[in-house]
Amino acid sequence: MKNNDFVFRQQISGGTARAMSSRGDLSGALVACTLAIGQHDRGRSREAVDLLRTAIGLAHSAYGKDHPIEACCLSLLGTFLLKQSGPDHAAEPLRESLRIREHTLPADDPDIAVSLHELGMCLLQQGAHEESIVLLRRARDIETRAFGADDES
Questions:
Q1: C or N terminus of the chain, fewer CB within 10 Å?
Q2: Residue pair 60/18 in contact by the 8 Å Cβ criterion
Q3: Which runs of E-coded beta strand occur in the chain?
Q4: Would you give per-residue pLDDT tens digits along the chain (153 residues)?
Q5: Rg over CA atoms, the chain
């Protein structure tokens, strides 16, 4: 597995992912995002964050700003930064992910609920309780409309 990891990192740093993305192919961004998850799972937080920033740049190259793949990468970046550096570093990418998703997806899309929940939890850690509650309720409402209410009786 280490050899595969090395080959993928070489492809990213060597420009293969950038070349794919410059042709309008999101594969490079998706490869970088997938590698970031793997690095994070291995405890390599800095490498994961660097790869996600690369993935965001590749998504920009492939489809311009505000693509849903960019929102996904920003969401992951925010959750990784929340664990690595705390809520002050995570809030900005989580807000940006939510903004993009609200701009590009239908109002009841479950991905919007994910962004609302992530940002709500981040703000809760920052002590912004009122804003956090508003976001978490919105997330719950979207999830209920999308998946139905949980019956816990």
A1: C
A2: no
A3: none
A4: 444 444 444 444 444 444 444 444 567 788 888 888 988 889 998 899 999 998 888 888 888 888 888 999 999 999 999 998 999 999 999 999 999 999 999 999 999 999 999 999 999 999 999 999 999 999 999 999 888 876 554
A5: 17
CA distance 104 to 120: 20
> What distance in Å separates the CA atoms of residue 51 and residue 35, rounded to the nearest whole number?
7
Q: Which of 113, 111, 118, 120 is nearest to 142 (CA)?
A: 113
Q: How far apart are the C-alpha atoms of 41 and 85, rounded to whole Å?
A: 16
How far apart (Å, rounded) are the C-alpha atoms in residues 22 and 79?
27
CB-CB contact of 146 with 108 (8 Å)? yes
Nearest-CA neighbor of 46 among 74, 90, 80, 87?
Answer: 80
Prediction pTM value:
0.79
Tokens of 5: 């990891």
Residue 142 one-letter amino acid: I
DSSP letter, residue 30: H
The two tokens of residue 78 are 């925010």
